[in-house]
Write a structure and sequence with these properties.
By secondary structure, this protein is an alpha/beta fold. It is built from 10 helices and 10 strands. About 35% of the residues lie in helices and about 25% in strands. The radius of gyration is 20 Å and the shape is globular.
Length: about 270
């Protein structure tokens, strides 16, 4: 689905409630490089949404601006009807973020990290302890809760980061490559938590370049390439007549039919 009016109507819904995310005319340049080129994007509430694109498409830059981590050169972002830059306190209370290249307080234990995060969020101590215990248990971190985060594996770090992002029960959760470098067991655990979260009516927005993963998880997709949105809408609409989301994605980004080996006739063969 590429029609802006159709996507906007679907994102807003019949009730007239605001979309989870509304992006209008968003631009970001780094020197001469245009990373995000005036995108418009509307993401519906209560859905599992994939922001997909090749490496360098602008996904991380877009999510950084949407979540208030990076100021755009131009444009506006609203989260559940609140402007990210005009009302940052209200927005940050409503979102959870698991960024790429997650930085954690590594000299805290997993439980201490959650306790600290909860206090920063203004949650009562008893409630923080209760939620932390539940999250550590569900994410299979209870046995490592007193271990320093510096000693956590990649999968464990992703899970404790997810626990911190979920602790205050946000309305919208943003995840940048949440399954990157994660073993299959940890990935399945994370997936189960996210599916339970969206089933409650919350919204997940996650970026990825793994089409099979997005197709198995998401019911709404936005395809990004070269800093622009190429398509957005329900998964079935974006996939269209293609056999898979991978095929539709390759067509949308102009990669179908590209021959990467025609000039490598020297590779392999007789030396």
């Amino acid at each position: 689905m590429t029609g802006e009016s159709t996507a906007q109507a679907a994102a807003t819904g019949a009730t007239g409630a605001p979309p989870a995310v509304r992006v209008t005319g968003l631009w970001k340049r780094f020197g001469e490089q245009i990373a995000v080129s005036g995108i418009d994007l509307e993401l519906p509430a209560g859905r599992f949404i994939g922001l997909v694109g090749p490496n360098g498409a602008g996904k991380t830059t877009t999510l950084s601006m949407v979540t208030g981590l990076l100021r755009p050169d131009q444009g506006s972002v609203e989260i559940v009807g609140h402007d990210v830059w005009h009302d940052p306190v209200e927005v940050k209370a409503r979102i959870g973020v698991l960024p790429e290249g997650l930085r954690l307080f590594e000299r805290l234990s997993g439980r201490e990290l959650l306790a600290y995060t909860g206090r920063l969020r203004g949650l009562p101590g008893d409630e923080v302890d209760k939620r932390a215990t539940q999250l550590l248990d569900v994410l299979d971190l209870a046995g490592a809760q007193h271990k320093l985060v510096v000693d956590y594996s990649t999968g464990m770090r992703k899970k404790i980061g997810l626990a911190a992002a979920l602790l205050h029960n946000p309305e919208v959760l943003f995840l940048d490559e949440p399954f990157e470098g994660v073993d299959p067991v940890s990935a399945q655990t994370i997936r189960g938590v996210l599916e339970r979260y969206t089933a409650s009516g919350a919204t997940v927005v996650f970026s990825s370049h793994v089409m099979e993963l997005v197709e198995s998880l998401c019911d709404w997709v936005a395809v990004m390439a070269a800093g622009r949105i190429r398509a957005q809408g329900p998964l079935a609409d974006v996939r269209g007549e293609a056999a898979s989301l991978q095929d539709a994605f390759l067509e949308l980004v102009g990669a179908n039919g590209r021959d990467s080996g025609h000039s490598l006739d020297w590779l392999g063969g007789t030396r």
